[in-house]
Design brief:
By secondary structure, the protein is of the alpha+beta class. The protein is built from 19 helices and eight strands. Strand 7 and strand 8 form a beta hairpin.
Length: about 450
Amino acid sequence: MNASLKNYINQYSDSSPLILFRIGFGVLMCYSLIRFWLKGWIETLYVNPSFHFSYYGFEWVKPIDEYTYLIFILCFISSFFVAIGYRYKLSIILFFLSFTYIEMMDKTTYLNHYYFISILSFIMIFLPANVGYSLDSFFNKKYYLKIPRWNIDIIKILIAIVYLYSGVAKMNSDWLFQAMPLKIWLTSKYDLPIIGESLMQKNWVHYFMSWGGMIYDLTIPFLLIEKRTRILGFALVVFFHVFTAVLFPIGMFPYIMIFSSLIFFNQRFHKKTLKYLEQLLISIKPNLDLEKTKIINNSKTKFEKIKLSVVTVFLIVQLLFPLRYFLYPGELFWHEQGYRFSWRVMLMDKVGYTTFKIKEKRSGDTFMVNNENFLTPFQEKQMSFQPDFILEFAHYLGDKFSDEFNEVEVYAESFVALNGRPSQRFIDPEVNLYAEVESFKNKTWVLPLNDEIKGF
């Protein structure tokens, strides 16, 4: 092993950043799940629909009718236990499994920050985030002041990956030279107070925000890492994410990224924050005994090398997985093969219209399907411009109508517009989609885009 690498692995760091991260992460997840429940999204997205779009290879992950609420309850309880540090290892494992299951129940709900939470919670399984300010620490009378440095750095690296890949993805001709799709979205914000009519309609604002967004993503990890620019970096994080939260309905993502950036601050900041939380608890419950047995530099376990190996392999996968789109010919924004899970955040505006024709092979009779009989409006919107959605729904229709007829074929009439371009035919109308099989192979039945988007 390289001497410098070995030296790094043996370095220790104050545990307070990881402890505070655990508390904040748990609290944010609790709030997110309560918010999701109160808005009625469990019912509208998972319980009511009769059909759900699945991820390839995970077709068995489905909502379980009314019992779906139990999955959310389990996720909430485990996130609360993570926040208070009670049976942390079991709690974070249950949170990872339940949250990821929720994320995969229906592909129409895919969001980048759902994926970020899943991989972050997986990483946290291998981190000793309960070494202090936790019920585990309280009951064991042990508070580890030091933990291996990589336990904190791994979170920083994961955050940097999100920003850097997002920034590189913005280096394309649509984003930089056409200000697309921001030009479409910002001009629709005319009803915003003060800035709606005065700024959001200006062409230079669209370009300024496009270039500014790319530069922000590419530089913010370095600004946060460097001590001299950290305050500036954090100020930019807060401004950028609050501003995007005002402009776009992107849920909890801005607040998750604002909180996550605090991990870059030094131990003094985290110690002061934890001390404030401690005093707050004491003021609420004056008789609370917070005395701990402090053990320094003793948090490394015999499984440390195994944990580091697993986390390293996982990190390498996260670095390589977003690059899989290079394996497919054609325009990524059009065919979307390799688009998800690659930190391509808000890069395209696609509008589609897709209907399906069922053909009975023996008689040759055909009829059109009313999508509304099977899909919710949100599902139909997502299906209309995403090839794997279209294929999956075509198979669902084929299976359904095969019960009425002996043999059927399914054809799609599909037209899609991308980033303000004129609508064009999306799916080859001569291809029987019911005979096509989902796989990692190139979807040749997706017609090519009549244009070229240059960039990464």
